[in-house]
Amino acid sequence: MSELASTNSAKCSQTTAADNKEKATAAKPQEQEEEEVDIDLEAPETEKAALAIQNQFRRFQKKKK
Prior knowledge:
This protein is mainly alpha-helical. 72% of the residues lie in helices and 0% in strands. Belongs to the PCP4 family.
């Protein structure tokens, strides 16, 4: 009887370890290749967009207080 119990507990621990590996693998985000974005940082429309985003963020921070 004790041999049967030790065999069952060994099987349970093996399946638990396998389940934990699967969960850990599923929790990690899949590595994706980074897409290279070519943005001209000196372009006037880029600068205008950056200023608009910064102003919106500042307004948000003021409202937050």
